[in-house]
Amino acid sequence: MLDLLLHPEGMSRHISNLDEVAPALLAHVRDDASVVPELLPRVEQLAAQFQARLGGQQLAPWTRQLAPVLTTRFATVHGELAFFFSMFSTFGTPQDITLASLRVEHVLPADAKTRAVLEAPA
Predict the structure, then answer these.
(1) CB 75 within 8 A of CB 37
(2) Of 70, 76, 68, which Cα lies nearest the Cα of 114?
(3) pLDDT, tens digit, 9 for 90 and up, residues 14-38
(4) In angstroms, rounded to a whole number, what is the distance separating the alpha carbons of residues 71 and 81?
(5) Each residue's pLDDT tens digit, 77-104
(6) Kind of pairing, strands 103-109 and 71-76?
(7) 31 burial level (CB within 10 Å; 0-12, 13-18, 19+)
(8) Backbone phi, then psi, for 2, in 5-degree steps?
């Protein structure tokens, strides 16, 4: 996920509400980096990229919102698409190091327009 966000043509370039989403994304990846310190340089690179995209403004610390979800909006060729990026699944007692680091993010459409685009034939 970090690679997808950090790539110059990657996901973060298309996030239209980055000012809302960046603090939450950084909080999550910094939590991950506290367990896997090798991630920290890439996390700080992501923070710098976000600040550059937002015109150098300092990112506010993320205060956990009352709502259980945070809508992420993407500018796409289909118009703005909105997703809930809120639910991660992990393995509770993995017997393998690969499974220990595996996280599955459940991405759900946040509105009818996004759902229609996702359900349309390719």
Answers:
(1) no
(2) 76
(3) 999 998 888 888 888 888 888 888 8
(4) 10
(5) 999 999 986 666 666 665 666 666 677 7
(6) unpaired
(7) exposed
(8) -60, -40
- Helix (H) / strand (E) element for 103: namely strand 103-109
55 three-state secondary structure: coil
Asked if 26 contacts 59 with a C-beta cutoff of 8 angstroms, the reply is yes
Neighbours of 59 (CB within 10 A): 15
Instruction: Check if the beta carbon of residue 72 is closer than 8 Å to that of residue 83.
Output: yes
**39 token code pair:** 């991630």
Report helix, strand and coil shares of the chain as percent, to nearest 5: 45, 20, 30
- Structure-token pair, residue 78: 């289909």
Give the strands of the sheet with 79-90, arranged side by side: 71-76, 79-90, 103-109
Locus of tokens 């809930």: 84
Q: List the Cα angle 51/90/109 in 5-degree steps.
A: 60
Name 78's Cβ contacts closer than 8 Å, sequence gap at least 6.
117
